[in-house]
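Hi P.,

Sorry for the delay on this. The queue was packed all week, but I finally got your sequence through. Input first:
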Amino acid sequence: MQTLQPSIHLCDPTLKPCLDYMQDYASLPDFQYTEEFYDKAKMLWEDEGVQECYGRANEYQLIDSAEYFLDRIDEIREEDYVPSNQDILRSRKITTGVLQTSFEVNNVHFQMLDVGGQRDERKKWIQCFSDVTALIFVVACSSFDLVLREDQNKNRLQESLELYERLWKNRFLRSTSVILFLNKQDILAQKVSKGTSLLSHYYADYEHFEPPETIEPPEGWCCFSTKRKRAEQRRRESMFPALNISESKEFFKAKSFIKAKFQDLSVCDEKEHHFIKHCYSHFTIAVNSENISIVFDSCKDMIQRLHLTKAGIIR
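Then the structure:
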């Protein structure tokens, strides 16, 4: 709190021992969550100074689910507490290394490789680029006002854009289509609604951006290797559900702007490529299990089609 500029102080100074306890003991790797911890955590969370600090969460590193769990301290502290599906979905663990998952859906075998997105993890990606049917790229759209954990001078959304461009142009992935998840739309909507963080503060071109009248069903942004008419070759995908969240005009503009940023990067040099490559985009809320379930079914069908296309079975 005091490291922020301008700094923030506890509204109730008698809670200073609670703050010291959290800083000195609760951060230890072998810390045990005692009743004392829950009591102090609840008192601190209810302090107006701490709430003000939370309101400026974009100025430091904090998981998105902090408010969700802190609002449920009384429930979590119970001895018979069992995490709900929503609790598990909102839990966060940094991915390190390469995690491989194999599963079958309707007698179709899938193999998924999950890789960490941190800079020091990216050197491990090259081993995953062989025989890839599709690349799933997940971007946190709400990160437009955040900086990287490993680089305090680098905007997270800008880092995602630059990383996406490098992957799109990577010679090992030149025939691999991308499924783009424009994720955390719920948090983006909250930030836009509060108005405390503005996209225009981070992207000068946002102010003059003109969003479409409506967002069409997720489409494949295609890059073609010949000069055939793109309008005749472009295939639109209509397999994703709409998001069930309140959509203001400003939020619609914000998510359209971010989508357009990635769309502008999803092009290829016709002289260097001899294939058709697509980027299939979708607005997602990963903690919405119903939404993601439908998205997964759609992606399953899409990946099967891409695999058959690569094999030359269909066109």
